[in-house]
Amino acid sequence: MLDKSVNKFTLWVLAWPIFIELFLQFLLGAVDTLMVSRISDDAVAVVGFSNQLFQAMTTLFMTVASGAGILIAQKIGSHKRGEARTIGIMALSVTTIIGLVCSVILFAMPEAIASILQLPDRLLPLAGTYISIVGGGMVLIAMMATMSTVIRNTGNTRAPMYVAIGMNIIHVIMNYGFIFGAFGFPQWGLTGVAISTVVSRLLAVFLLLYIFLRSFEYRIKWKEFRVFNRPLFGEILKIGWPLGINMSCWVFTQLIIYSFIATLGAAELAARTYMNTLESFCFLLGSSIAMAAQIQIAHLFGAGKIKDAYRSAYRALGIGAIYVIVNAFLLFVFGKQLLGLFTEDKTIIAIGASLLGMNLILQPGKMLNMALGNSLNAIGDTRFTMYISLGSMWLVATVLSYVLGVHMGWGLIGIYSCMIADEYLRGVLSFFRWRGQKYLRKAEQHEPSVSHQITPMEVMPTQA
Fold first, then answer.
1. 370 pLDDT band (50/70/90 cuts)?
2. Which Pfam families does this one have (predicted)?
3. C-alpha closest to that of 273 among 23, 52, 25
């Protein structure tokens, strides 16, 4: 009896819904930035700064969500569906609690946090409003991220995509209403944008929860959220805690780098925010391929198909590299005109345009790093990616950014140079680690016990 779920784990089937979901997330950010730019460039700087803060907070619950996602794909690959179901339930319970704690902190002291992170004083009132409302809904981000991760790793990458479509439509309509006073909405500016963000996320949580409860062979019941399987949670943390530190390194170093940029001036901060939007679009397809490859490789690894897992990483890297290079070149050619859609400030446009050539160098390095880093994570080699992140992100991307960008006065050019060096260093180290096949060889030694002939009874789901 063949396992019909195998067809769900091909690279293209996994990747295209993830791409559309990421594109819509990008669209959400781009529309936010474009609409908020109609309020002021200061408002744009506050949104960009706040989003870095929110990303830093997400690492607290993504430690659990990411580890659970990888394990779910591995368990499904090895036909341990009952364990996969239990892992999904525990992940949502734990991350919701963490999200609630984050919500309370951000709602209670928004301006104090922004001040500590060196946001210019004149931006603090705007930041206080935006961070308290959107940050107060951090629990919604925790629930969305966890449920989307679990659902995707069961092989169903379409459902989060459909939810993203609905969320984006609602968010754009509400944004327009609040900013321009349309559709009978009050003209509340940045406060309205924050409310629009929270409301659209709340609706998305309800939809994802409905799908999540039905993502496994047996519908999840409310009373099961009290279940806590200590050995399985230990497996989540074994994979998840290095991932959490890895993600923490990225978001906290980015937050610190943003604080460096904030000391350069509001124009530089706004330019970086606009460029971040354009760069995100440039890397969308590459990112979706890398995420799909992680799910596919984890499934193949769990099924004992070691050689297929090894080859899948290079295939994803090759395909992704072509797309990101083409996109980076298009951005290099048309980037100045695109920046003009966001702002009329010639200083901000000039600063952003000066970074377009560097982005052309940056993007292939990001693809190398993400494709092979995700592949290592998929097979459980998360400590290695953690170690190289600790070294490279802090020393190269952060410390060197301060030295070149602030101390030596090179500004954003110096900071971008360090970002490029960091991506390529981690990418090259991940390449040699993957090529060495340490974890894959170890698994291959036990292959007879992992990839034995599957009987019809083993294909049937087991009650959790």
1. very high
2. MatE
3. 52
